[in-house]
Amino acid sequence: MRYDVVVIPESFHPFGKHELEHVCVPLIVGDRSYDIAMEIINGIDRALRASFNVESYEEPEGEECDVLYRKYTVEKEGKKGIVHVKLRRIGEDCPPIDGNRCSVLEFERDIECMMKGVEECLA
């Protein structure tokens, strides 16, 4: 079985008395074995905690194809957002998600690519 690691950042922007939610393009490291995908997910966890103030963390139930779903509420320099991190099974009933591919086949650079996308979304 093959897996995608999917990161979906969301940011909040003031609009009058309200905050508008902006969902950014998903970032994907695709077509990995379970062990490699879990290493990437744990690397993203470490990178998020090192780069942002993680205000909350939870593991809610995901969609049918999600093997693991982590939801982080983050803050950096007064800007808040949510980062969804999913381990998604790829198969006949679970097609790949469209988004920006960060698959450079080098662990550290895959994570750097995803973190850059999260930073840009929250800017």
Give the tags.
single chain, 123 residues, seven-stranded mixed β-sheet
Give the SSE order as H and E letters.
EEEHEEEEH
Number of continuous helical runs: 2
Total DSSP E strands: 7
Instruction: Assign a percent range to the helix content.
Output: 25-40%
Into which percentage range does the β-strand content fall?
Answer: over 45%
Q: What is the mean predicted local confidence, pLDDT?
A: 90
First and last CA, distance: 36 Å
Shape: globular
Quaternary status? single chain
Coarse structural class: alpha+beta
Describe the main β-sheet briefly: 7 strands, mixed
Computed over alpha carbons, the radius of gyration is 14 Å
Low-pLDDT runs of 5+ residues are none
General description of the model:
This protein is an alpha+beta fold and 123 residues long. The protein starts with a strand and ends with a helix. Strands 1, 2, 3, 4, 5, 6 and 7 form a 7-stranded mixed sheet that branches. Strand 1 and strand 2 form a beta hairpin. The chain is built from 2 helices and 7 strands; from the N terminus they run E-E-E-H-E-E-E-E-H. The protein has helices at 34-51, 107-122, and strands at 2-15, 18-23, 27-32, 53-58, 66-76, 79-90, 100-101. The model has no long low-confidence stretch (mean pLDDT 90).
Concise overview:
This protein is of the alpha+beta class.
